[in-house]
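Need tokens for this chain, all 422 residues.
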Amino acid sequence: MRLTMNTQILIGALVGVGLGLALGAQPDNATTRVQGLYLAGLIGGIFIALLKMVLVPLVFSSIVVGVAHLREHGNIRRVWVTTLLFYLLTVTIAVILGITAANVFKPGAGMHLDMFADALAGFQAKQLPFPDFVQQFLTGLFKNPFSALAGGDIVALVVFALILGIALVQAGDRYPIINRGMEEMQDLSLRIVGAIMKLAPWGIAALLARLIATQDLALLETMARFVAVVLGTTLFHGVVVLPGLLWLITRVTPLALWRGGRESFLTALATSSSSATMPITMRVTQTNFGVRPATVGFVVPVGTTMNMDGTALYEAAAALFIASLVGIELSAGQQIVVCVMSMLAAVGAPGIPSAGMVTMVMVLQSVGLPAEAIAILLPIDRLLDAVRTVVNVEGDIVGSIVVDHVAGADAPHDPANFEARA
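Here are the structure tokens for all 422 residues:
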């Protein structure tokens, strides 16, 4: 029987921890330890390099395609404007929750991982006055995309992707070759990610072996605190924020939401994929909540591509956690960059398991943090991925109901009808 990728990653993590403990128990100058750490560093380095390689084409094409698809719905301008405003509101709240929780609870406090010292050799923590930071940040958004590509300037590349996507929306059907090319680039990038993920168990084992062999095991306790903070914050967003917004706007109760969306939520939990869950999400949104098919046909696919509150929350909190572990205190300006990039990463993350791992690299690199630090996050990512996928799907359902209520008809649904159907 072929093992699932989840099982392979778990086995790889356990093997990595075991090898790390074995190597850590040997003297520093032992041949086995030196050679083992070298091999682990080599394998782990190749895995990280592969992720960096696919980062730009995947995120760039995903953002362009996600924004450009709005051109197909130019005849329902009010619907898509309402959709984008609502999704922007919820993802902003999610990112603020993630950043706030990381600053308040400080799950990485007291730890310092020396193994990333080389990766951080070029890091410069610039303390700029806020007006100077705003000027530098805004002017840095707009660069020659080829120069940004050569220099690894992720922020400028993402901004160009957004501009290109908006231009394609305004152009309508004038550039079918470019539209098709972007879709094909996204598809090819996802295929490459799938191939890279076959190496993930080996990469995770190597990265964890090196991490465990060179660090204090107190890291495990720190990881438990981080998991608790992220899970607690994600559940707060899913149990309080999204149902609260739904009730305030439509008077649909949280109980009605959970009953009506239960099938979709359970599928999201099992698959960790909002894309795989999308057909079920569309069906329950129409059947259980009475949302019009035209609204569902637009809002849910757009949400699956662009509305990932759980992903944005996790990546914002994770960036601050990594910064704390490697001994860096991000300034207020750098935390703003993390917030913005986490929101954009949520737009550029395809709705498949582990795709967020690639966009996590983007968020870390935007403020100069080492991409290698995702080794700390990978073993726990599957658990967190399942929970945040449920919140992502919940946001799609809530968004559909809200948009249908606000912009979908001249006579909004009676909230009592939602209650009866759910």
